[in-house]
Design a protein that fits this description.
Helix content of chain B: 25-40%
CATH class of the largest domain in chain B: Alpha Beta
Order of helices and strands of chain A: HHHHHHHHHHHHHHH
Distance between the termini of chain B: 57 Å
CATH superfamily of the largest domain in chain B: Dipeptide-binding Protein, Domain 3
Strand order of the largest sheet of chain B: 19-18-20-13-21
Number of helices of chain A: 15
Radius of gyration of chain A: 24 Å
Largest sheet of chain A: none
Shape of chain A: flat
CATH architecture of the largest domain in chain B: Roll
Oligomer: heterodimer
Low-confidence stretches of chain B: 3-21, 523-527
Number of strands of chain B: 25
Largest interface: A-B, 65 and 67 residues
Amino acid sequence: MLRFALRRVASAVLTLLGVLALVFGLVTAAPGDAAALAARAGGNRAVAVSPEALAAFRHLYGLDRPVAERFLTWVWRAVRLDFGRSLVDGQPVTLRVARALPTTFALNLAALLLACVIGVPLGVAAARRPAGRLDRISGFLCDALFSTPSFVVGLVLLLVFSGWLRVTPLFADAETGLRGFLLPVVTLALASLAFVARFVRVCVATALADPAALAGRARGEGPSEEIRRALRRSSAPFAAMGAALVPSVVSGSILVERVFSLPGAGGLLAEAVFARDLPTVLALTLLSAVVVVAASLAADLVTAALDPRTVREDVPAAGGVAA
Amino acid sequence: MKKLALLVLALFLPACGVRGKSQESVVRRRLEGEPKTLNPILATMDPEQIVLALLERNLLDYDEKLNLVPGLAEEVSDSPDHLTYTIRLHKDARWEDGTTVTSRDVVFTLTALLDPKTPALTRRALFDGFVKAEAVDARTARVVFSTAAAGRRDAFNLPLLSAAAWAGADVATHPRNRNPLANGPYRLGSWEAGRTLTLVRNTQYFGEKPAPEQVIFRVVPETAPAFAALQAGDLDEMRLIYAQKKELDAKAGMAGAPRVVTFDELAYSYLGWNNRLPVFADRRVRRALTMLVDRESIGRNLYGGLAKLANGPLPPAHWAWDASLTPWPYDPKAAEVLLDEAGFRKGPDGMRRKGNLRLAFTLSLGMGSDVQRQIVELAQQSFRKAGIEMAIQPLEWAAFAAKMDAGELEAWAAALNLDPNPDLAVSWHSAQVPPVGLNAAFYRNHEVDVLLERLKTTFDREETRALLARVQLLIHDDEPVTFLNIPLTKWGVSSRLTNVRTSPYGLFLFWPGAAGWRTSTTTGPIS
């Protein structure tokens, strides 16, 4: 188990470096540089731009240095948690990310919890009677939610509840308190809820159709015991689902943040990409990648603890065949 | 259950009364993006300029007719050879901390602006030929240049940095960049990152005090929530798209409904042609392309009739615009004749060729504008009927801008915004082709070059007007790009705001601009 964990950590570090090098390469190779974009003032203005000022901008942020040197310098500083200054506003990147992250984190965590609180029981209930009325209705609603872009859901909620009915504020800030976050949380939760409910439904339905469940029923297990065992047997896929959902807690949702005028990490990343603000892009990528890798590592370890066959090369895991 | 219902009521009811009595002297404004800096010499983006317009006076300000009028400076005079400018500061001009605005601040600002380490992207070029700045006395500064330039007075539409506040650190990364010292009608009260900037009345301001006590700028990137907020009274102003204007027009006269303000700006939309390419080298082809685009229909259908036809490189809002130039008409038949004359004849497949050269090209556009995309699609249909093959390539804005700056685009759709006294050489002089300048059309006309050079040293207004008229005529005849439309700018303004004036430079970037606004309960300026 320890060897397995160490091997996964080592591969996670390599993955992180690979992701950073890839993102650095992509943003550097993309047409457009931060200095020229800043000079364009976000549009097309017929104004002479001084070459000296452009050179000063590039020198200030080290854009005039060789690409490899810039990457290695960034990695070296990042190891010491110095992510440089943003090319957009000259502020330390750490500060910009630290400002954006609490909003994103709070919103997405609350949304995830809400999605699980509603989605898990809904999925279980639907799985108990496959093709029953609840299964069909929840399936239809989940498909509808899944296929509707969350910014459309958000916009509709905003216009109805904030613009028309005036029961929630249009903007979230200190003045409006938690009420301002209600609609964004619901919007984000609805997007995850469809996924959670359908995933849980499939896992639990599969577990209930398992011969082990049949044996349990033959032993006279009641419905609640049967569901408890089905949930337990589904814990490995649930861990994988958690690993897939957790990264959204830091990466945020660009469009939902825009609709609700919330300054989160999603909007920050979009702005940084469009402005070719490489230090901010890299810092946010690193953060997301760390969470993705950590969540996937945690899921692997949980799965390994629940089903040790997954880490033993001599024993086939469930559904697998030993070589 | 009862308790739960009460809790829900407690949670939601306060939303119905967000605005209280104390909000009456507060103006709530929209920013489409957050300012990146409030350092006035580094600021380039609209949100920054809009906020700074209330925080800082310029040495000279533009009035609503775009004349330069006294601001922080009572007077800016130049020597007969136009090489030395003497700035006489207003005797009462003060920073928000009560200290006097002095010539030392002028010298400090210019020194910082022209420091090779300072990335003053858009202001620095205005001071080409700068030799030195010196303080003559506490209120008088002298600025010396090595060459005379006709547009130089516009460079003194310049805000100042306080030498005392900004000294001692690199201005590019100075902490004051987010907390500037104001000398204008308002000072920065607070800045909640990504959400709001609150300005409060500057008690030290030397001029007429603004009526509203506070201005709250809220960052609202999306137009739909902003429009809902405007209608609900949570915002007092915002730029409108045509559909929103129509919606407000339908509510005109209803109590409390926001009103619509429209005005001409110094801007126009166009289709750019890379004149270097053989397909665009002949001006008959370029004229034909223009004559194939039904710009009146575009103005009618896409801009709801709120757009004028562009006839050249200056829009009607500019003082030297030549109204006598008739825009090229929409005339597909005449266009086809021009294409035939230029040697591009229709082949058996219906497409035009001149020898082996097909009349085919790719037109790029930056993503984001639906109207621009529709214009391009209409042009594409019209070109196809005339035997011209145009592929459309939407590009992410940064990629689009980079290709334009590098002169790599074959054809493109864009809108151009001009300054109050634009230097046309930047866009049309043959020496200003990429990567040096903005002449992405690679337009070359020797006479235009000569005239643009002369304009740089012509100080007489009527002579300037005559030269600009000739430049407009030549460019109109050459049609290096297809000048499309000048859409009217549409703004939604709360019914409680009064004294809202407009200028060709927008609602905010002239004096007094938004500093002169009043709310229904703050009827007069505070003296």
